[in-house]
Amino acid sequence: MTQAELNQFLLGAIVLGCGVAGLFFLRFWRRTRDRLFLIFGIAFWTLGVNWLALSLTRQDEVRTWLYELRLAAFVLILVGVIDKNRPRDRTSGRG
Amino acid sequence: MAEAVYALCAITSLACAAMLLRGYRRSRARLLLWSSLCFMFLFLNNVLLFVDKVVLPDRDDVLGVTFAVWRSAVALIGIGLLLIGLVWDGE
Amino acid sequence: MSIIPDGTGRTLAQEEIPPNVRAFLNDHVESVVQLEVLLLLYAEPGRTFATSDVVSALRIEPGWAEAQLSNLVARGMLAAAGAVGSYRYAPRTAEIEAAVAGLARAYADRRVTVIGLIYAKPAEPLRSFADAFRIRRDKDHG
Fold first, then answer.
1. pLDDT for C77-95, tens place per residue?
2. Å from B80 to nearest chain A CA?
3. B24 to chain C: which residues are within 8 Å by CB?
4. Where in B19-79 does DSSP place strands (E)?
5. What pLDDT digit, counting tens, does each position of B18-36 carry?
6. ipTM
7. Domain limits for position A56
8. Any chain B CB within 8 A of the CB of A62?
9. Proportion of chain C in helix, strand, coil states, percent, rounded to 5
């Protein structure tokens, strides 16, 4: 097996892993109705798409837009964290 | 521009790992430990990406293994640890 | 249980209990019996209670009462008062004092909700996961 072939195998596993992880997060979102899990689910699916695209293309040519997917995933996670820390304005009482 | 993107991803991963580790210490919920480890490996993945594209753009491999394989292996370990946590300790 | 549709998964009734009380329940209160023992001693802070007083007031077994009392001492809410088997309400910190006072009020007004908070640990790891991303360590467990 060449290293390129090994890399393809690893990427395939990663893509599937991200897909399953995303599914888990979406299931948690359904259970808890906590937006954070929805965001993490979409973020991990986005990462999965990023690695899927990486495996299907020859990196050098389409590098730029590819890493925008990675950026989008992490920005989404940041959005989730910021959202978690916003003061809750609609509820009664403190907090 | 690319450097900034990789740096942002790395910092975000590290921040998530730190927050989850702190949360694990508070709550002892094992899911947080697995998730924290995942984000540490994703941090490493982003660091390797930075090293690959920005620091050593002309090198293809380290210790006989290509950057691509290093990055993928590290990411896979991270995702794998997360899955263990989600399946085993996600209740 | 009406969940507030703000994406955080809380219920309306739980929201009305102060955050410090909720955190106190989460960290320290494991059963309704324990809560009742605590509030029994809280109601008469100057008085020294013997284990038998607790047993007759709450109609629980002596061994159980003893266990709850020593547990509450260990958690810094009660103090052993001289003679073996005597206790009094003596919160170790102002934080605990405020939380117990709030808890007493909450239990009087919203007994069912408080009991629900003691026993409802729905998807506990998930709540901890989400709470981990709260940056400020405010005593708000939701």
1. 888 887 788 899 999 889 8
2. 7
3. 132
4. 61-62, 65-66
5. 999 999 988 888 999 999 9
6. 0.94
7. 35-85
8. no
9. 55, 10, 35
